[in-house]
Design goal:
By secondary structure, the chain is an alpha/beta fold. The protein is built from 23 helices and 15 strands. The strands form 4 sheets. Strands 3-4-14-9-10-13 form a 6-stranded mixed β-sheet, sandwiched between helices. A 5-stranded parallel β-sheet has the order 8-5-6-7-15, with helices on both faces. It has a two-stranded antiparallel ribbon with strand order 1-2. A hairpin with a 2-residue loop joins strand 3 (91-95) and strand 4 (98-102). Helix 3 packs across helix 11 (231-250) and helix 19 (431-439) packs across helix 21. The longest helix is centred in the middle third of the chain and has 20 residues, at 231-250. Bound molecules: pyridoxal-5'-phosphate (PLP). Residues 110-112, 145, 228, 265-271, 320-321, 398, 424-425 line the site of pyridoxal-5'-phosphate (PLP). Pyridoxal-5'-phosphate (PLP) is lined by residues 110-112, 145, 228, 265-271, 320-321, 398, 424-425.
């Protein structure tokens, strides 16, 4: 059963927790018990493929789904050649002890696909299982990657509609094309006048409007979101930590039982938290290395125990990590302390003061599992160029941050054990920054070129092929051309649902 990180009497099945998303007291859902995997069981998974490993892990957490239901969800998410690599999340060796776990072989070339391909299937199945008759309306405000991955995941899923709002001036040309060409009978995409904060504020206002919720309720519709606080988005991410370890054992890079480190380019703390849960389940992970960009609030927290969100916000070349409030940290604090009253106090302080501080004892415990460092944009670009020249491997800026932090960890600690770096985006998704880094041209020169020329240039240079989903954008018709003001967002939702004004 699932309970809230902030206490209270709510106790839900996994299907219910996935439908509801957030606990009524504002907390996040966590499993009452984390299952443990024995060494023998782990060894028996070496010969399994990604689908089978996903099934073994998911069934431990989603205990109210039948085996048949889980298998169907997994097949729909990762099957049907939606991923352009048969291993789904392959591990690529850079040198003897450094490995890239490539999480970007999905339909939108970003790591968000790993979770957002599966969450819609889990949600749709949950609606059927629980006899929920309402239709679900998913609202997403996006600064780029999440919107497209959510659209692709929810496209044509039964009983669910999705509407994505993106800032008119705030996404890259490729990201915009990815969204405005989206197909599906249940999707809508809308540009919002303003920046990402305007779009996000608009969506929050719709969620908080009680009158509108009542009107939706009368029409048998319920609002929901697709962001990473939903347990259904977190659980698919546990799978690839296991899968990466098992792959290294199968390839003879590790002996069963040997431990490894992992480095995670971190924003909302969802990905790295899934790694911590894998470790708690018994996967031999030694250190979880938390990599940040200039927005280094997590580096400071994991080193000092003080979380201080009152600081300058930087726009960087690794935008998916430009974040000051990392929501999933709340789950880590709960899992380490199991003290819901304390978690509640910290989270209230964070929302009212933008600050909280944990005890020295808890900080010491965190440091047994985590290490943290950050990297600025200049160094991030230099590492892209360096790794391309020395290993002929092309990293996107997020992956580069993680690579450089891994180097810093090794220098600081001397710990050279095998390390898996989570590679979270295809370099082609951030072709401007990657081309600038590799060629030494400045970004404004590059920004003048057409996106498809840039993709070709990067492909010629690296001899890597452009992901098919990005190539196909050039010939796809634009289906979503509307722009609205923040004030009009709610009316857009009403229109999409054919509600009376
Ligand atoms: C979302 C994202 C991240 C951050 O992941 P979190 O789970 O939010 O920590 C890192 N890199 C890329 C490319 C992303 O899209």
């Amino acid at each position: 059963m699932f309970i809230s990180t902030r206490g209270g009497s709510e106790r839900l099945s996994s299907a219910q927790a996935i439908i509801q998303g957030l606990a009524h007291n504002g907390g996040l859902f966590v499993p009452e018990n984390i299952p443990h995997i024995s060494a023998e069981t782990l060894a028996s998974w070496v010969s399994l493929n990604y689908f089978e490993r996903a099934f073994e892990v998911l069934k431990l957490f989603l205990t109210d789904y039948t085996e048949q239901e889980l298998k169907e969800c997994i097949e729909k998410a990762y099957g049907n050649h939606k991923f352009d690599h048969s291993a789904i999340a392959p591990v690529c060796a850079i040198d003897q002890n450094t490995f890239m776990l490539e999480l970007w072989h999905g339909p939108t070339s970003a790591f968000k696909d790993m979770a957002l391909q599966l969450l819609p299937q889990l949600l749709s199945t949950a609606l059927k299982k629980t006899g929920e008759s309402h239709e679900i309306m998913i609202l997403v405000a996006t600064s780029g990657d999440t919107g497209k991955a959510a659209l692709a995941g929810f496209q044509d899923v039964e009983q669910i509609k999705i509407m994505v709002f993106y800032p008119d001036e705030g996404v890259s040309a490729i990201q915009k094309l990815q969204m405005v060409t989206q197909e599906g009978h249940n999707v809508s995409v809308m540009a919002v006048e303003g920046n990402f904060d305007d779009a996000q504020t608009g969506v929050k206002q719709i969620f908080n409007n009680k009158e509108f919720a009542e009107k939706l309720n009368q029409s048998q519709v319920r609002l929901s979101s697709a962001n990473s606080i939903n347990w259904g988005r977190l659980v698919p991410q546990i799978v690839y930590y296991f899968s990466a370890y098992l792959d290294l054992v199968a390839q003879g890079q590790l002996k069963m039982g040997d431990s490894m480190n992992v480095t995670v380019p971190t924003g909302n703390f969802g990905n790295i938290l899934a790694g911590y849960i894998a470790k708690k389940m018994g996967l031999p992970i030694d250190r979880l290395i938390c990599a940040s960009n200039n927005n280094n609030v997590l580096t400071d927290f994991l080193r000092t125990g003080s979380y201080n969100a009152k600081r300058q916000f930087y726009k960087t070349i690794s935008p998916s990590m430009d974040i000051l409030i990392s929501s999933n940290l709340e789950r880590l604090l709960y899992l380490l302390t199991e003290d819901t009253a304390q978690v509640d106090t910290w989270m209230k302080a964070l929302s009212s003061e933008g600050y909280y501080e944990i005890s020295k004892e808890l900080l010491a415990e965190i440091k047994e599992h985590f290490w943290a460092e950050w990297v600025d944009d200049v160094k991030t670009g230099e590492e892209i160029a360096h790794v391309f020249k020395s290993h002929h491997y092309l990293m996107d800026p997020h992956t580069s941050v993680a690579y450089e932090v891994t180097e810093k960890y090794r220098q600081a600690t001397g710990d050279m054990k095998p390390c898996i770096i989570l590679s979270t985006a295809s370099p082609f998704k951030f072709n401007n920054s990657v081309l600038a880094a590799v060629t030494g041209c400045n970004e404004s020169e590059i920004a003048q070129k057409n996106e498809f020329e840039l993709l070709k240039e990067l492909s010629d240079l690296s001899e890597w092929s452009v992901p098919a989903n990005l190539v196909s954008l050039q010939s796809k018709p634009v289906r979503h051309e509307r722009v609205c003001s923040t004030k009009a967002m709610q009316d857009c939702v009403a229109q999409f649902l054919h509600l009376e004004a």
